[in-house]
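Minimal example, chain plus flavin mononucleotide.
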Amino acid sequence: MTDRESGTGFEPLRYHQATKHSPSSVRRGTHRIDRKDPPEQFKRYLELAPISLPAPAPDTGYPTSRAITGRPADPRPLDLAELTRLVVCAAGIKRIRAQAGAEPIYLRTYASAGALYPIEVYLACAGVDGLGDGVYHYSPLDEALRLVRPGDPRPFLMRACGNRPSIGRAPVTAVLSGIPWRTNWKYQARGYRHLFWDAGMLAANLLALCASGGHSCEVVLGFVDSELDALVGIDGHSELSVCLIPIGFDEAAGAGAEPSTGPAAQVHHPVGRISFHQREYPEVTEAHLNTALQSCAKAQLWQQDPFPNQAPPPSDFAFTGIEQVIRKRGSKGSFSRAPIPADDLEGIIVASTYSLPCDWGEDLTQVGLVVNAVSGLEPGAYSAVWGMQQIALGNLRERAQFLCLEQKLGGDAAATLFLLTDLEDATTTLGARSYRAAQLNAGIVGGRIYLCTYGCGLGATGLTFYDDEVRNLFQTQAEPMLVVAVGA
Ligand SMILES: Cc1cc2nc3c(=O)[nH]c(=O)nc-3n(C[C@H](O)[C@H](O)[C@H](O)COP(=O)(O)O)c2cc1C
């Protein structure tokens, strides 16, 4: 047991073990996706009136590599038009893909495994010019907000987050929640991992956009789950809180709100059905409960300062404006096998793992990679923890394809990046909650890799993987959290 919170770490590791992919688990699998009853892509409130968002503030055109490494531009006022730029660009719809005999797929500006988009966004606002104080749900379908709770939410947020100063000062806190059924429908119990990966993809967009508007921001996981769920009006089971991102909390935002003496009363608004039939995955419920924080004191114990930079920020290498990159980003369906420059690869790795502003105090993601075609680097497996360390040299294209659930993309990529965390170490030091942090940290790094890659004119795709086979290649006890392949 740690002093950070009550979980021992053992329970989430059990969930992790039980949801690993292996060649035999995939071949033995009997799960059939019920294509006649897919989950609704959007949360629909039946009784709340839409509040249309205004035209967004103009694009900043801020260079992508600067935005990703969190070097803030000159600050803009955080009014409703600027908030619209942030939320629509980070989480809106970028394209509609028709499907024969089924609802079209509304592709979003962030990557999501299976394009299932289990993440919802709420905006807790106080003192935003053009918007009354309250908690709003963001609907990408009609680009509108819906007021789920009126009034200044900051005292309740402060209490739920163990008095985190950024939360008390921020005029806007984005709350990302996850709807497990949207992803369990296809990925079964492993879908719980996807909530954090997809939230990380969205968060990577939002953090970079905040930097481009000069707004301070950080990712907060130290919150009392039941109190945050009640505040945004979700039940913590069919929809659960994943993380918060307070925005614009610098000194200019004033002294900040004091915590409330009690939690927010639960709000409830009727919403449309998600599917006709849903299956329960007790492993998911258990993993979520085992990593929950039950009291304000536990939330406070979790809180750490953001981890310091290990190195100076990388020199700029991706100059395209961040908004343009986010809108153009898409997952590659194939790679050409052409080599990419070593400088680009190094820039992508350094920038995407650089200084994450968060409340878990240490970078939980290490990068291992298979190099297939990078000019100036011998093909093989490397660890990128302290510079590039060779693990095995030689042509590993077939092996990389095999590791990525035998998908060709893993072998055709110029480099396949494996995002790893030593879960035993993390849970021993930080407690059970660190399981969520490890998955989310990897999701954000993965999202940053996508953006950096597109920013320098290359392509990327997230990939799933055979867990233990990856550990064997890298000869590590760290566990793979996520894979992103990059190439031409
Ligand atoms: C965590 C994660 C895992 C993914 N795994 C795969 C995969 O195994 N195979 C694949 O072809 N695409 C994979 N993708 C890409 C998604 O299919 C893609 O993001 C989604 O279809 C939306 O399309 P877009 O990224 O082009 O916007 C993954 C994406 C994410 C974020």
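The chain has two domains: 10-302, 322-487. The chain has 18 helices and 16 strands.
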